[in-house]
Amino acid sequence: MQVITDSPTVDDIQSWLTGQLSEKLAIEPGEIDLQAPFDSYGLDSMTAIALVEEGNKFLGLELSPLLIWHYPTIDALSEFLAEEVKTSDVETFEI
Amino acid sequence: MSISTLLTDLDQQGIKLWDDSGKLRIHAPKGSLTDQLKAELATRKAEILDYLRQDESAAASDLVGSDLFTIGYLIGGCTKKAATAPTPPIIEPEKMAATLRVTLKPLPKGYNNQTVLDFREQLAQKLSGVGVQVVPWESATRDFKYDIELPIDLPFVTWKKASTMRVVKTDINAVIDVEKQPSWLDRTKSCAAEKVYQLYSRLFAGNKKISVLGITKLIGWAEDYAIQRIEDPTNTQVITLTELEDTAADPDVPYRKKIVQGVNALVSTFSEIVIAVQPSRFSIVNMNLSDSVFSIDELDSFILGSLVPKIYVPIVPLPISRFKVDRYQPTASRYAEELIRLSSALASTDLFPSGFSIGKVVKRKSHRDIVNLLVDGRTGISYGFVAYIEPPVYVGATEISAEEWGELAPVEMVSSNRLRQNALGRRYMKTTVAGKAVFKQLPDVWFVSSRSGSNKTCLNLETDVLRIGLTSGLELQIPESIGPELEVKPSYDVYVMAAIALSTALYAPHMLADDGAPLIHFHGYPAADWFQSNERCTGVSNPSVPCGTYESGVLNFLGLRSLAEQETRDIDLICLVEPDHGANFIARDVDYLLKRVSEGIQQGDIELGGKHFPSLKRAMPMTSLSAGL
After folding, report:
1. C-alpha span between A93 and B145 (Å, rounded)
2. pLDDT band, residue A2 (cuts 50/70/90)
3. Cβ of residue B15 closer than 8 Å to a chain A Cβ
4. Cβ-Cβ contacts under 8 Å for B151 (sequence gap 6 or more)
5. Residues from chain A contacting residue B374 (CB–CB below 8 Å)
């Protein structure tokens, strides 16, 4: 069985965020604009916190919910998170 | 090595594993997952996934078996389609305390109010004494690094600067701070920041709402003396300690005047809770507009009965996404007409002053906008609610025998020891009435209630009355005549109304059987002497969770259920007390309710504010909440 060292790239994080927003806000993934602010999709505080909790699991990081407001689009947040993953002390694997 | 031992060993090394839809995902500190470990995990993947799934399902099974989970499931209108799984309510303050983490913000330089300092020290000690973790500030906060950019897009201008701020971590439930008096420099900066905010919102924001963080970014640089840096404002509440003004503790000062002072204190300190202290007494105010003054000797009971529940249960509005939304015609509903009659007649009691518009009480636009966002677009803060519960709707037998119950199918997510369903999908609950096990159908319950932001004693039939249902889920029916320009928000009190409607149908059904029943909530109490032999009161010893919340709904349900231990057929009025917050009355009909409330007001036995609560506390024995299901 293969053990994949799985350090997500910007593209991986973008598609993960798109999937999460689509699931949590019941929007078709194709309708999500990577450069549109999260709040334009009606992302409220509770859902934002839930999104960050999922992100912590997915990336193995301890993310602050404040990131959503400081990096308020999928594009901006994905770039920031990909940098964080690179400099993180945690490795992610998938079997 | 067993899987359990392996996972414990890995956990101790900081290696976390979980089931990600059939894949085993692993987070490990760099270099800690050796080739040998990787090989072992790969070989034992199936066993590990099985173990993780069993662990999850055992936790879920403990959860669904509990009495409180079933009640939470029922009043929450939970369905498998709901975005959030029902959580088991916690209603015992000791259990709440054991989950809480609070921190004390370091005192500002030169702070010397000795009364507040003494109280702060006692508060920390006593919170710790009841099991709350008091976390040192350094451990409760962390540095948050981010880039500052101009909040507006200007052509050919890009400006970015890295910045760091100390923020309170997400797992902290409350920050305890002291109120600081702004210096002249703080005031000047605040004034300038307000102008910047007003200009920005006029020129650049247009009709677009600015988030709370957006607003705090624009004004926060000037509000450092008051504003808190919090990662998760949905979980972390700010508690500000301040000095108690004599008027706030004076029983002769009208409740309305005290509450306006209280709301301004909350908003100007950016707090969810303000505790105002004097050497011998103190008061607490939150956005529920509680009005309670305690003697310093009552600090122990205050911590467990009042403060811990308020920290544990943040006030969060029920989002409209939880409802199946539809339209209805209020002019064709005689229950809506009864509600209008009730609400008009209540005007003369003064128990329902029109609340206040946030715009009139909060002077600064930035602060108003923050409060507006926090209350989710509701236009004002009200002093209660008025509702009318319709007769419950049953399909088939309202009660069945134990044998028939035994043949029913399980209901997903809930223990089949408590809830089952027939072929038509009608659910039956096993419960206890007057000491006997009975198997009752859960009816569909509907009630009409005032729209959030409306004047409770001057309702417009065509636009102010919403119809809400608790069927297999939560339903919201909006008047047909309301156009898209009016954003309708369900009341904060839906959980409580739904819980009372359902529990009355189950445990005091005669009150709804003829033609439904009126239900009101006001921010005051009746005196113990006011009650007649055909009236009951319960809830006086309940923890004072904020009213309208999920936990408050569960406590109201339990209160009504506790009455079913005795004969309920002769009861014409039930008072469900919510300590610190007021009382709910449900009565057999509108005329009886109006007559009794009017008598109470004329005799001075019913009043807004906390004046009569002590008499209830003296008169009512502790009630057991655990009997029933």
Report:
1. 27
2. low
3. no
4. B200, B204, B214, B217, B218
5. none
Helix (H) or strand (E) holding B40: helix B35-43
Among candidate residues B476, B457, B407, the one with its CA nearest the CA of residue B77: B476
Chain B hits for A71, CB-CB cut-off 8 Å, are 146
Q: What integer is the mean pLDDT of B256-278?
A: 81
Does the distance separating the beta carbons of A2 and B26 come in below 8 Å? no
What was the pLDDT predicted at B508?
94
Strand pairing class (B323-328; B474-479) = parallel
DSSP-assigned letter for residue B157:
B
Q: Which residue range forms the structural domain that includes residue A36?
A: 4-94
Query: Is the pLDDT assigned to residue B143 strictly greater than 50?
Result: yes
Best of A20, A59, A70, A77 to substitute, by most chain B Cβ atoms within 10 angstroms, is A70
| pLDDT one-digit tens code per residue, B536-558 | 999 999 999 988 888 999 999 99
Q: What is the CATH number of domain B320-393+443-619?
A: 3.40.225.10
Task: Determine the pLDDT at residue B624.
Answer: 39
Average pLDDT over residues B294-311: 94
What would the mean pLDDT of B172-179 be, rounded to a whole number? 94
Distance CA B428, CA B431 (A): 9
Among the four given CATH numbers 3.10.100, 1.20.120, 1.10.10, 1.10.150, the one describing domain B3-64: 1.10.10
Yes or no, beta carbons of B167 and A66 under 8 Å apart: yes
For A78, B201, B203, B366, the CA distances from B206, given in Å and listed in that order, are 28, 6, 7, 15
Partner B, chain A 49-68, Cβ-Cβ below 8 Å: 49, 57, 60, 64-67
Give the model's pLDDT for residue B356: 58
- Here the CATH number for the domain that contains residue A29 is 1.10.1200.10
Closest CA to A66 of B52, B146, B434: B146
Domain residue limits, chain B: 3-64, 100-180+226-312, 320-393+443-619, 395-442
What whole-number percentage of chain B has pLDDT above 90? 44
Q: How many structural domains comprise chain A?
A: 1
**Nearest residue in A to B321, CA atom:** A25
| Token duo for residue B203 | 């020129």
Chain length of chain B: 629
Q: Which of A66, A67, A93 sits opposite B33 (nearest CB)?
A: A93
What is the Cα–Cα distance from B190 to B181, expressed in whole angstroms? 13
**What is the ipTM for the molecules in this complex?**
0.76
When pLDDT is averaged across residues B379-383 and rounded to a whole number, the result is 59
- Cα–Cα nearest to B238, from B246, B253, B228, B248: B228
- Could you say which of B23, B144, B211 has the minimum Cβ distance to residue A64? B144
Cβ separation B24–A94 shorter than 8 A: yes
pLDDT digits 0-9 by tens, B422-437:
999 999 999 988 888 9
- Whole-prediction pTM: 0.82
What number is the average pLDDT over the span B402-417?
A: 89
Name the residue facing A60 among B24, B27, B170 (closest C-beta). B27
Task: Retrieve residue B218's tokens.
Answer: 């624009």
Task: Give A 3-42 residues with CB within 8 A of chain B.
Answer: 3, 6, 24, 39
